[in-house]
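[Backbone geometry]
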Amino acid sequence: MGGIYKRKGNSAKNKQHHRMLKTKSYKRANDQIHDDIKPENIQKWQNQPVDETLPGLGQYYCVSCARYFVNEESIKKHQISKQHKKQDKRVKEKPYTHMEAELAGK
């Protein structure tokens, strides 16, 4: 009656599974965020046009964490959290340049 069933294998061997996980939870890198917190760029992120596809219509955005929030209450709660304070500290550090990375590799 039944046939031989092929096992799919575990996800450790599945390349497609790993690619999906990389892009699913992608966040902006710290060096990208470091550029966003400059005074000329921060206004662009804080005064965004209304976008129905984003949480909170894109009006509540934490620049240092690169996250959108649903309402003002949730972003205020986030700003006093430990996670936000750690990320804020990380982002304010000057990122390494390509030249510094090459010199360290030699």
